[in-house]
Amino acid sequence: MINPKSMRDLDCIADRIRLNRQSDKRTVVILEGPSDKRVLQRSFHDQNVSYFVAGTRNVALDAATQLADWGEEYFTCVVDRDFDDVVAEAASSNSSIHPYENADLEAMLAISKTGVDLISELGSSDKIEKCGGEAAVISKILELVAPVTRLRRASIENDWRLAFDAVDLSAKIDKKRMKLKLQSYCISLHRESRRSPGPAVLEKYAVGDVPLKREPSCPCGSSPYFRGRDFLAVLSVALCAFCGSKRAQTVLPDSLEEALRLAGAYELRTTAWGAELLSLLQCKDTPGS
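Given the sequence above, the corresponding structure tokens read:
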């Protein structure tokens, strides 16, 4: 007997949005997750917006595509770019898709004033000064993250499906020298990934000995390109010795992500990305739209 589809399988975000539109004429924003909703609600609290959380990026993009195919124009879709070309391809034919700059929201905030403020607040002023300031701390963290960024793109290009979430990046940072233990990281990544080409190959891609087909980049110019969670994993280590004196359990990546989102929400609308989203929301918030 064929098992009936679950309620989640039967759910169609686009159908729900169009049905809701019959009684709710507010501009619609489609998002990946509930944390995105909380951030945008804080940042754009004065906007007349109805938020729909899709659960995943693909579901959000599918809903945006379906609504566009139906000729609907009252929505905006906000998603992460990540390391593939899916969002770029979708946005090329759908002007209602407004991805975060860089790889994701956390990456966008990490290199903004919010990221600087986070380091200033949680770090040691003396250690930060010895490092050359907050900008130098951020540069050092991005230096350590760069090999991981190359591996993330290589995994997409070669369909390796590397299990990045199964390896604790922070555990692969030598906190005394602030260096990525790359060989150890690649070995662990290989062990956790069934389709890995081997740690030696991973290491060659990570250091750039084997070039990528296309370097990951943000069309908005946000550079360097990286995943926000990778940045926060390295920052959590840096705050324990390199630029701070925190205990590891007080600056876990999850806690840093929460702090970054909370602080960043109030700066977000003042950025170029936020101003563009605000313009989109106001443009779509018209009578009869």
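Residues 186 and 200 are 8 Å apart (CA to CA). Try to locate this feature in the token string yourself.
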